[in-house]
Amino acid sequence: MAKNTQPQSLTGLDLLEKVKDLGNLSKEKKARACGYYTVTKNGVERVNMMKFLNALIDAEGIHLDSSTNGHGKGGRSASYKISVQSNGNLLIGSAYTKKMGLDSGDEFEITLGRKHIHLRQVGASDEDEEQTIAI
């Protein structure tokens, strides 16, 4: 009887290069060639496609989980809608300021329109639209 073995699976750049080198082979053959299979105690090879595909996703640097990598709680995601609070204030949450790369202390000039608020970062040129927010 064959012993249950686990081959060394490729990860990261090694995995990406090997998959690229394997060209037009099927997904299963690529997974097997990259070490993503097991041999059962009955000697049957089983390709572990889920581990293979997850390793490819990780190697490409794609993060599908909503984990925060130890940087506090995940919190809510940005809905791109805000409501006037009971005290009359509008609060722009941290999801937006983080997405824009804003830091504590950044200042904005406020221009009021008929149905919008326009924020322009202090010190930004007139042509710098990336640092301008319309609410």
From TrEMBL:
Residue stretches making up the SpoVT-AbrB domain: 79-124
GO annotation, cellular component aspect: protein-DNA complex
Molecular-function GO term, any one: DNA-binding transcription repressor activity
Entry-linked InterPro entries: AbrB-like, SpoVT-AbrB_dom
UniProt-listed PANTHER family: SLL0359 PROTEIN
Name the record gives this protein: AbrB family transcriptional regulator
UniProt superkingdom: Bacteria
Keywords in alphabetical order: DNA-binding
Classification via Pfam families: AbrB-like (PF14250)
